[in-house]
Amino acid sequence: MLLEVCAFNLQSSVIAEKVGAMRVELCENPADGGTTPSYGTIKQTREKISISLYPIVRPRGGNYFFDEDEFAIIKQDILLCKQLGCDGISTGVSKLNGEIDTERLKRMVEWAYPMGVTCHRVFDATPDPMQALEDIITCGCERILTSGQKASAPEGIDMLAQLVQQADGRIIIMPGAGVRSGNIEKLVNGTGATEFHTSARMMAPDPVTFRNPAILDATNWYIANEEELGKIMEVLNAISL
What we know:
The protein is about 40% helix and about 15% strand. It is an alpha/beta fold. About 40% of the residues are buried.
């Protein structure tokens, strides 16, 4: 039973390794569902942690259909992750009709090699999840991050179980979104999955003593909840025994 932590900063990545997670999906912009982190963030995180590091490669929030300029950005970011010694990437791309763009995804997997590739929640935006599963397998991805096409993995538990069964060991199905210590055992038993994904994030304390109330664009930032991640790991470790 493996845990991947969606980390929105270096600090959360360090916490993930501390509690015993096996992999970090490094992102920025939680409000957008995660976008590509900066060069400095990837480099510093790679130097600070020894567990697997998979930055998300997604140039913006919104849909997963990218124009030629955005696709060129994706290529450069993939090559940068390889240059910085990352173990893999989390990425995905769709056609205008929402189906997986297999031609482009295959190229992304080729650019990433020998890094691994997780197909992220572009999968949950596809019109036919079982066909998308087969398409992603043909592209050479090693796993799919999915909530079972629902708002959260606990809500998508039945679909997740179907996906694990259809995948039949050809690709890893990794439930994510809404995974917590209170539901992780149910997800393990109800899906048959062996890898799980969570951010377990909380609002970070603000050490700054003054804020101008007229400036409203200084939003909160988030950090991984070490206690919650520890509880999830306790459950997974107990099940693995």
